[in-house]
Design goal:
The complex is a heterodimer of chains A (368) and B (187). Chain A has 368 residues and is an alpha/beta fold. Chain A is built from 13 helices and 14 strands. The chains are: A alpha/beta (368), B alpha/beta (187). The interface between A and B is medium-sized, with 26 and 23 residues.
């Protein structure tokens, strides 16, 4: 059993990477596996710095392939284990993540997005949205929480462990280099004080009890002989995924109830949207935000309702429409026109959005 | 909502991020809302290093902003890189003893200070960045000096304990920076 560092509510001023390490400890994570890549290194550094106090474990592997599969090994042995990666590391780790999807392993990974494709920048992007949701040679049976700052990082890292172990789908914290490197205040707490109990993490390999007497065999399959057999199996996964979605899908609306222009953004960009919305509302412009917190699965009904209510929508991302593609599929049939503000691998500022919304208003007036 | 947006830029190794950390730590201790992003490249040292700091009374939204209230530039390359963060409401500060170029921008005010020269001649080159910290404190007036001193203690306390005269030197540098701005604003 690991030692908890945070027993009473403690306000701290940290980087997001540090927050993730503290949150993993608060969730009683027992082991981290990882391979260094900017901008997530300080998750590992912090986790390791805390080891003498937490009595948890850490293994630095030779690459992300190994980090991913080692994480799976730890989980199968019944450890609440996790990993973290970014950019090209996220690409390389897809092999293990795919296996986690197939074998329903409660894999937990923090992704601190950086610019892409390939090495690109070590700084920031939202360009791993598609990869994190749908990477690998499968169907994207994954749960992806997109965080929007340090309090989110703390809350959702704790939640991710429980979601993963309860539903047995690989679960991701999708953050970015800004969130990893930036400093802002965060309130840390012991999950127990918020009524959160951690899901048990029973071993699947060498599980307790005698097979056939005390329990059934744990049949972890990664290979199928027949096409139909595979499909039947995956249809079961899809059913579980859809059931899970009802309980897990989360979203946030900000001043969206009477919004004529609805900004759809996730992660840290949603915060810039709030800055812009406050400024635009002061000028009497009715703008609001719909922010999917789970990018996968999406909260489809609330999303459709918000889009239906508005006259125009604006997609904005630090990517070339990766979230928009995922959203557009789910709002098929609605006719609300949309505009886009995409900045590939670059932060979106409040001013960017203010200018864009004003441009949308003046061009729609010209048409009218 | 009051929010002060600060861009601090210089060469890697000038202590830009160290100063930014002290500044935001002081703000946090003063119970302000803070958001600080260090801008970093692939290189370990030698690039342009930029610190984006926001200090406010309410929770801060956008992590990156487009225009700074105060933009401090400590090298020629920093001047080039930071042009984009300047608009008519920006106070621009640059080091006349480091930069060969003078920033030209339509802005509220341009203040040139020879901080590096003063550090070299009167104090120690090692407290150059603390002079800059003094400049920021005076130019922004966002927080009382006591919080800054206690954040300095937090960051440098161990060094101060070993060599108590360093504390005095750093305080002098801080005051020197503050006076530099106060003086230039009188002109």
């Amino acid at each position: 059993m690991v030692k908890k560092l945070i027993e009473k509510d403690t306000k701290m001023f940290l980087t997001g990477n540090e927050v993730i390490a503290y949150a993993a400890n608060a969730a009683q994570a027992e082991f981290m596996y990882g391979y260094p890549i900017t901008p997530q290194n300080e998750i590992m550094h912090t986790w390791c710095k805390l080891l003498p106090k937490t009595e948890a474990g850490f293994l630095q592997t030779e690459d992300e392939i190994s980090a991913g599969f080692s994480t799976i090994g730890g989980i199968l042995a019944g450890k609440r284990a996790f990993t973290a990666t970014a950019g090209p590391g996220n690409v390389i780790m897809q092999d293990a993540m795919s296996m986690a999807e197939m074998m329903r392993i409660p894999f937990v990974c923090a992704v601190m997005q950086r610019g892409g494709p390939s090495t690109a920048t070590v700084i920031y992007a939202q360009q791993e949205t598609n990869l994190t949701c749908f990477g690998g040679n499968g169907e994207g049976f994954r749960i992806v929480y997109s965080t929007s700052g340090h309090q989110d990082l703390y809350d959702y890292v704790i939640k991710a462990f429980n979601t993963a172990w309860k539903y047995r789908f690989p679960t991701f914290i999708l953050a970015d280099g800004y969130q990893g490197k930036m400093r802002e205040p965060v309130m840390m707490y012991d999950p127990a004080t918020r009524g959160i109990t951690m899901e048990p993490t029973p071993a699947q390999l060498r599980a307790v009890g005698k097979i056939g007497v005390d329990r059934d065999a744990n049949h972890l399959r990664n290979t199928f002989n027949l096409e139909e057999e595979l499909m039947e199996h995956l249809e079961g996964y899809q059913k579980d995924f859809d059931e899970m979605a009802k309980e897990v899908a989360e979203y946030e609306e900000y001043r969206a109830e009477d919004a004529e222009i609805l900004i759809i953004a996730h992660g840290i960009v949603a915060r810039s949207a709030k800055t812009a919305i406050d400024a635009l509302r002061e000028k009497g412009i009715k703008v609001g935000l719909f922010r999917p917190i789970t990018i996968r699965p999406l909260a489809v009904e609330p999303l459709r309702n918000a889009v239906k209510r508005s006259k125009q929508i604006l997609f904005t991302e630090s990517a070339n429409g990766q979230l928009a593609r995922i959203v557009l599929e789910k709002i098929y049939g609605l006719t609300t026109p949309y505009s886009t503000l995409y900045k590939m691998g670059v932060g979106v500022t409040g001013d960017d959005l203010i200018n864009k919304v004003q441009e949308m208003i003046s061009s729609s007036q010209v048409v009218a | 909502m009051t929010r002060t947006k600060i861009v601090l830029a210089g060469e890697g190794g000038q202590g830009v991020q160290s100063v930014a950390k002290i500044l935001v730590e002081a703000g946090y201790e003063a119970n302000k809302e803070i958001l600080y992003i260090p801008n970093f490249g692939v290189e370990q040292r030698g690039g342009v290093s930029i610190a984006f700091c926001q200090i406010g009374d309410e929770k801060i939204g956008e992590p990156r902003f487009s225009k700074g209230d105060i933009v401090i530039m400590l090298s020629d390359r920093a001047i080039e890189r930071c042009q984009t963060y300047i608009d008519k409401n920006t106070v621009v500060i640059y080091d006349t003893s480091v930069c060969h170029t003078k920033p030209t921008a339509e802005c509220k005010e341009i203040i040139g200070i020879p901080a590096n020269q003063i550090a070299h001649d009167e104090l120690s080159v090692r407290v150059f960045n603390i002079i800059i910290l003094g400049v920021i404190i005076e130019a922004t007036k966002v927080m009382p000096i006591d919080y800054v001193k206690s954040a300095m203690e937090h960051a440098l306390g161990k060094k101060f304990d070993k060599k108590p005269e360093l504390r005095e030197l750093n305080y002098k540098a801080l005051e020197c920076g503050m006076k530099l701005v106060a003086k230039s604003q009188c002109v």
